[in-house]
Design brief:
5-stranded mixed beta sheet; homodimer; Rossmann fold; alpha/beta; 14 strands; about 260 residues; about 30% helix; about 25% strand; 8 helices; flat
Chain lengths: ~260, ~260
């Protein structure tokens, strides 16, 4: 069964099979805010196979953002809308796939490519379109680089907001297929490459080094400003996929070394 | 050592002694948003006796609102600004006491009292003023009722936003000493009595049955409106002092009995 939700499709059937195979009686469902209005489409299939379902009320900002409190109270936690980032027992994923056509914006984007070796990247919703995009670009004479990324990356060419390991740095420039500015800006910052964005909703735009330099200058400005401060708070995220205690300790030590008051929050 | 923060005083010394007695090395500090700007006043005394301190970044809406995640990572959790509501191991409390004078507003409030048997109530900040208030009212010829409340109540005459067990219902009416409308409105709703509010900041006001009836009518209006709904979400709070799984199950069963779609969040 493939459930259609506007343009995002979800393969709920595989998750149902997996839940049944594990003999799970109570399941939790966790999903990003944008999908919460359609929650019954995810809850009912599991109730129909006899599961007791509890929905997470917490915000969910990625595959690394696991509701561990809910996980403790259920047999299986079904995480909708993202792919696996960190291995956590008893969590299964229902990934989204967009059925929006990307051919038009990809062909449009070709006009903006200046190099010949192109690293192809996208977000989870479009990973199944990678082959189609490769074929379009090969026909136009480009050399395509599509990399696997590290262990946090589930699909070839996939980027996360925090992870651009699937961008092959041997490229001349990067083509990003997908919506939004957050991911391609991250690619530009992480790689220093020019990024051409093929956005099926808002068309093609280019992120060049001028744009990233402006952002970096802003960030340095903020850091410069903070140097006058006498008291610092360090926010320590405790989410399973986002916690970085060593970095917190390092910053704490830096503060103390420079005689700043400091607390960990 | 009594630390003065504007008009709220905190006996940090007792907590320091308690922490030292338990040999706690790492402590967590949890406090309501209104006190967060003064966090260093609470952190430093504990750092000075050699503790490693982590501050809770979660909102904290009462003595029942324990940051259990932080509690798991520290030896002792110091909860600032509230009194104990539910017994949780390794949590100690630093209660606030207001040094604002209440004599003026209490004397003013006497003019608005109609009955002779008065139940005296207040919030944590003013519990140390109870004897003074009793003496003022006795001199004016009133009979005073000051009750202990149930196990969630730490001080005689104290009310919480959710607990009015320390209001003796044998009274003619209630005198509430303290700021805010939330607590006295709760008293009026819970007891059906007329409540005279002696507010040291905004003066005296009276909450009569007209006001509570209006609110109850509004609530019934919301319930009436919801009866057309086909889908219901039940928000299940999992905080240690606020979780009520039996009520959740009861509402869930009610929804199903009346053929409504329903999810627990």
């Amino acid at each position: 069964m493939v459930q259609t939700m506007s343009v995002l499709e979800f393969n709920i059937e595989d998750a149902l099979v997996e839940v049944a195979k594990r003999g799970a009686e109570t399941i939790g469902i966790s999903l990003p805010t944008g999908l919460k209005r359609r929650i019954f489409d995810f809850v009912h299939p599991f109730e129909e196979i006899g599961c007791k379902v509890v929905v997470s009320g917490k915000p969910c900002h990625g595959g690394c953002d696991i509701d561990v409190e809910l996980l403790e109270r259920v047999d299986v936690l079904v995480h909708v809308g993202h792919s696996k980032v960190v291995p956590v027992e008893n969590v299964i994923y229902i990934e989204p796939r967009s059925n929006v056509d990307v051919k038009g914006c990809v062909e449009e984007s070709v006009k903006h490519l200046k190099g010949s070796r192109i690293a192809l990247t996208t977000i989870l919703q479009y990973v199944h379109k990678i082959d189609e995009v490769v074929s379009i670009l090969k026909n136009k004479g480009f050399e395509l680089l599509v990399s696997s990324g590290d262990t946090r990356i589930s699909h070839k060419g996939q980027v996360l907001g925090c992870n651009f390991s699937a961008v092959d740095k041997a490229c001349d420039e990067v083509l990003y297929v997908g919506e939004g500015g957050f991911h391609p800006l991250g690619i530009a910052l992480a790689t220093g490459k020019r990024v051409v964005v093929a956005d099926p909703y808002f068309g093609v735009r280019v992120i060049d080094t001028q744009e990233t330099e402006k952002l970096i200058r802003k960030r340095y400005g903020m850091i410069w400003k903070s140097m006058d401060a006498e008291t610092f708070g360090i926010i320590h995220c405790t989410k399973v996929g986002q916690t970085r205690p060593k970095v917190v300790n390092h910053i704490h030590n830096l503060c103390e070394r420079y005689g700043k008051k400091c607390i960990v929050i």
